[in-house]
Amino acid sequence: MSKELIYNLPYRENGEKKSIEIKIDFLSRGIARDFDNLHKKQESLRSKWEELKSTDALIEEYKKEKPEGYKKELKELFAKSENLKIDILSFDKNTFIDDQYKLLQMILKDNGIKDGILLNNDFWEYQVDVQDMMTFLVAVIYKDIDLKKKH
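User: That's the sequence. What structure does it adopt?
Assistant: Structure tokens below.
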């Protein structure tokens, strides 16, 4: 059975802290799937970033310690680092953000919100903290899942 979520979204207007109540009682399978795809892209990018940081740290360690055979290892690590940088820089942040806005729009429209600031991308872009937007999306996606352990 679908649960109703009443979410208080914090935002700022001209520096003043405000909030708006959003009622969500419907979540389609397509929205859940699209969110999952966005989440996987985000996690892939985060993973590559972490791998790049550890690879670059290893490069610095090899340069400093100069263990046996380090030049060959350094060459491989430099190549790995460059490939990770290319992957990270090729991530289309604008498309990712546009896809997030489309997801927000679909969720809001599916739940009866037809107009107002919530459907304005500039509102989400400039007045809502990034973390608050993600917290809202996660709350919506998992609204019907009971996360409490049953004993």
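DSSP finds five helices and two strands in the chain.
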